Amino acid sequence: MQSPDSAVPDGTNRSLELAISADGTPEPDRVYTIDARCGIAVRLRKGQVLRVINPSGHQVCDFWAFCAENLGEHLSMAHVHTSLGSIFPKVGDALVTNLRKPLLEIIEDTSPGVHDTIVACCDHARYRELGCEGYHDNCADNLRMAMSVIGLRAPRVPAPFNIWMNVPIAPDGGTRFAPPVSRPGDVIRMRTLSDAIAVMSACPQDMTEVNGDGVAPGILQFVVEDA
């Protein structure tokens, strides 16, 4: 049964073992690896740059960011749509919170720029819809676990910025899941405009083509660059 508490995962995985430090503070310029199917939270200071790396090219990153001083304020895709007048963020765009405050700015994207801002993250209920009878690793739980191991509680599970996820939209508004068009080694870099907690999940989806056709979910990497 799916937990009614937004901070309590429905199951566990190695996300509980992957904290980069006790409070999520990173070592600048160190390359960290996010294991396949797992999530990691990182504490970012204003002005730092987060570089997210796609080693395989096919792995999607579910991405969230919360204001460090108030976890109730977080990156909001619905508000990003209004702010940008677009569902496709690009280099130079600021990503805003549910209180319409700019929190991150995309400063580099080596991929073709195909990302998703409309689809909810996978969760226990989604895999049950897809026919999974037991527990399946999922991004919602990865968020919860990644925050818990640095001493925080996820106040909710917002809709993520699905980096490298390819969701084509038809003229009639229909959507479908397609393999990513990103390439091995592609990078997206985002500058932090306010102190934040960022959470990244190497999406474990293996029942659709979200992470590619005929390949298993893979690792992600990230680096925090000082201002």
Describe this structure in words.
With 227 residues, this protein is mainly beta. Helices cover 11% and strands 27% of the residues. The protein has one domain. It has helices spanning 77-84, 124-129, 139-148; strands at 32-34, 39-44, 49-54, 61-67, 70-74, 94-96, 102-109, 161-163, 186-192, 196-202, 220-225.
Order of strands in the sheet with most strands: 1-11-3-9-7-6
Query: SSE string, helix = H, strand = E?
Result: EEEEEHEEHHEEEE
Write down the Rg.
16 Å
Average of the residue pLDDT scores: 96
Number of strands: 11
The domain count comes to 1
Briefly note the structural class of the backbone: mainly beta
Helix content: 10-25%
- Poorly predicted spans: none
Strand content: 25-35%
Q: Which term fits the overall shape?
A: globular
Largest sheet: 6 strands, antiparallel
